[in-house]
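Q: My labmate handed me this sequence with no annotations at all. I'd like to see what the chain might look like in three dimensions before we decide whether it's worth expressing. Could you predict it?
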Amino acid sequence: MSSMLKSLSITALLASSLFATPNVDKTVTEFQTKRLNANPQIKLENLSIFIKKELPQKGWYGYVFDIKANLNGQIVEAKDTIFSDGVLVAPELLDIKTGRSFKDMLTPTMTNDYYNDSHLIVGNKNAKNKVVVFSDPLCKFCVEYIPMMLRDVAKSKDIALYYYHFPLLRIHPAADVVTRAMIVAKKQGIKDVEKKIYEADLLDMISTKESNEQVILDTVNKVLQTKITLAQINDAKVKQELEDDMKKADNMMIQGTPTVFVNGIMDRNRQIFEGLVK
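A: Here is what I predict for the chain of 278 residues:
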């Protein structure tokens, strides 16, 4: 989400009055529309409800909105979360006893199109349990966790593991080239690309801030024993494939890595997955 749109979701008071109406969806949507249109730098192109879930608190609902807007001449797409009972609206809602945010309840359920054969990296696609991981090859936690996942899934007959690229480009800009090189390598038929990249631990070889594409690519080629070129990683189809993965992550409201889904449900602490591989 852009900083401008994000700031709109946390401004003002934690709760703002709304006119009571039986149609909570309509009321909340109108509130969001007015709030966004109140900013002269934003021209709202489209606003729609992406997720709506009833909360344990009677009469309260959580909403995730898809927002498309023209921000200072640039089209941006973002998601925004709010809570409402039709009378009040709040950008955040916490359980006073546990301190847990009700935003945790607003994770979308993964659809079957995520179980695409081209993303299957370990296991049988007909396995009982399907695990999807979104990862960044220059994320320290991913470098530690992904090799363990690969080993554990390889030992099980009941798990299929699917991998999606989600480079955190703001903090690991070099991951862009690494990821695109991985995509090219897969297209060339190189086996175990993810295993080789993560086990090599690129963090010991290049800076996450490295801006020289050739330096980054040379490192990947050394690890994979390939001769991938800059022209290949800059091919429009390769860039589109990465963009498609990023869009898939956005649709699942992924914010960090590694993020794991088990049988369609986000496994925030990876406890469900770890229970499967015990």
